[in-house]
Amino acid sequence: MAIRFAIDGDLRFISHHDSMRLFERALSRAQLPVKFSEGYNPRPRLSLPVPRAVGVAGEAEIVVVGLSEPVDPKIVLSQLAEQMPASITLKDAWGLSGRQRLYIDRVDYVVEISLELLAVVSQAVRRIMKAETWLIERSGFGDKPPKTIDLRSLLLEACIDSSQLRWTVGITQSGTIRVAEFLSAVGLDPRVFLHHVRRTAVHWR
Questions:
Q1: Which domain holds residue 52?
Q2: Which of 30, 57, 144, 164 gives the lowest tally of CB atoms within 10 Å of its CB?
Q3: What's the rounded Cα separation, in Å, for the pair 122 and 53?
Q4: Which whole-number Å values give the CA distances from 69 to 24, 65, 120, 156, in the listed order?
Q5: Has residue 99 been placed in a domain?
Q6: Is residue 166 part of a domain?
């Protein structure tokens, strides 16, 4: 079953791992028939298909839960909602038949920017959207060296709408661009703006 939810407030600062743990505990308390993996350390079969950057709020996040028997989506929402903290709002749920999967195509973001930054950011957005390629360097983790990413190939849309910067990124098998990478590319300091970003939609097929 796929469940759409919103996350905001202080909970937007929890990590992907902690988000998984939160749902694991909530599903257990809700006494829903969750399917578990096999082996010595069985875990609930659940996933968050599009990891959310720490600090980013989400209006249309998705969690997918494996169930051992059919359950009405309304019952799942009702029982699970009672176990969720105040900063998470469950919106809707629907069943996935058999081995059906959600294939995420693209994700929409928005952030408010001040009037004094509008001209600079707008100019940067226009330059990026007109370019055929826009190469950035992604830092490596541990012993992994940095690698070059073509931001433009994964940036589907970007524009200034009143005082808001809106953009859409594509999701591929090899990944996507990070929120902080896009902010840096248009001249916004991620340390200042990352926790003001909202993920407004997750599109799938």
A1: 2-94
A2: 144
A3: 24
A4: 17, 12, 54, 39
A5: no
A6: yes
- Residue 66 and residue 136: Cα distance in Å, rounded? 38
Enumerate residues 6+ apart whose C-beta is below 8 A from 143: none
SS3 category, 25: helix
DSSP string, 142-203: TTPPPEEEEHHHHEEEEEEETTEEEEEEE-BTTB---HHHHHHHTT--HHHHGGG-EEEEEE
Q: Which two tokens stand for residue 88?
A: 């998470």
| 205 in Cβ contact with 148 (< 8 Å) | no
Mean pLDDT calculated for residue range 160-184: 93
> Which DSSP category does 67 fall into?
B
Burial (0-12, 13-18, 19+ Cβ within 10 Å), 122 = middle
| pTM (two decimals) | 0.91
Q: How many domains does the chain have?
A: 2
pLDDT band, very low/low/confident/very high, at 90 (cuts 50, 70, 90): very high
